[in-house]
Amino acid sequence: MSLASPTSLAALPSPSTAVWHLGPIPLRAYALFIIAGIVVACWVTDRRLRQRGVAPGAVLDIALWAVPAGIIGARIYHVITSPAAYFGTGGDPIKVFFIHEGGLGIWGAVAGGAVGAWIAARQLGIPFAVVADALAPGLPLAQAIGRLGNWFNNELYGGRTDLPWGLEIHRMDGGQALRDEAGRPILEEGLYHPTFAYEALWNVGVAALVFFLDRKLRLGRGRAFALYVMGYTAGRFWIEMMRTDDATTILGVRLNVWTAAVVFVGALIYFLRVRGPREYLIPVGLPAATATPADSDVSQVDLSATRGGRVEPEVPEGYRVVSEEQFAHWRQTGEAPDEVTNPAEPDTGASTDDDGDTPTAAEGAAARPADRDS
């Protein structure tokens, strides 16, 4: 990576190279940061799922569905909201498939990823709300890491500024800065708001907020994810209005500003209306001896079994939703709670008090098998 000399001592430089070539293979900074973000999100989600009783490795099964679906959703959203480049005058429809040239929308990524995660959760027998809540702090961290790719691409910046953290912007072509006759990278005139950096820092703050409130309030039933959505869209609302790149507008306002406002309201309504304790899971179809040791805070369920001298993976048949007290008892003793004796009793969590404590009457209802969506 080479950096141009700053035009001011009080300025943030930008990389002049966003693509490196390993022989004929291009290594794009944006893609590398996206992959790094996915790895971080998977690590955080895996740990949080295991703290709720899910066996190790389940996050990889979820990612195999969620990541491709998220990429497809992100591309679809971009094409729908910016159709002129593909179907307008001088557009090239075949470039719809040229994802390597850029053009992904976070709203489509979240929606597509949610569909993929839902499919995987159904296959694994894990309530979708458990997956969403486990992902809640990891997703903004992944987004923050991904925004570093925009820095390398010299894109998604705001208007001119004279602030000490004003950003230098190179004139880029094909992942490389254009250069003058002396071989020096060419800079755009002036300094600009690093809106991608504002969003990255905001997302780190959202991750910290979700982690803290989830730990304090013991959120469940998708409320931790709703909290993430509210936090992210609140920041995206004001940051989006600072950006100067081309975008579809409605009534003179960028489409993503409208989207952020609508999604925020939807998440707020969900967060306020939905109630219930945090869900915990115990595996079905594995021996009680594989229960988590009491001195560990994450699931250590052994997914290996020896058959014919070979170690093969052993996957739970599914999971049962239990209360926190029942989960703690299972971790200490390996004894699963009895099945529900009154299946007609609804498991709505409506009787749960505000601080997340589960009434005794609701504990049995919470222990039913997780054979449907949450």
Automatic annotation (TrEMBL):
Keyword Membrane tagged: yes
InterPro entries: Lgt (IPR001640)
Job description of the protein: Catalyzes the transfer of the diacylglyceryl group from phosphatidylglycerol to the sulfhydryl group of the N-terminal cysteine of a prolipoprotein, the first step in the formation of mature lipoproteins.
Biased composition (Low complexity): 358-368
GO CC terms: plasma membrane
Listed NCBIfam families: lgt
Designated name of the protein: Phosphatidylglycerol--prolipoprotein diacylglyceryl transferase
Source species taxonomy: Bacteria, Bacillati, Actinomycetota, Actinomycetes, Micromonosporales
Annotated spans, Disordered: 326-374
Protein keywords: Cell membrane, Lipoprotein, Membrane, Transferase, Transmembrane, Transmembrane helix
One annotated GO biological process: lipoprotein biosynthetic process
Pathway(s) per entry: Protein modification; lipoprotein biosynthesis (diacylglyceryl transfer)
Pfam families per record: LGT (PF01790)
Family assignment from sequence similarity: Belongs to the Lgt family.
Membrane topology: Multi-pass membrane protein
One MF term in the entry's GO annotations: phosphatidylglycerol-prolipoprotein diacylglyceryl transferase activity
Residue spans crossing the bilayer: 28-46, 58-77, 97-119, 126-146, 195-213, 255-272
Location of the protein in the cell: Cell membrane
Binding site residues for a 1,2-diacyl-sn-glycero-3-phospho-(1'-sn-glycerol): 147
Top-level EC class as recorded in UniProt: transferase
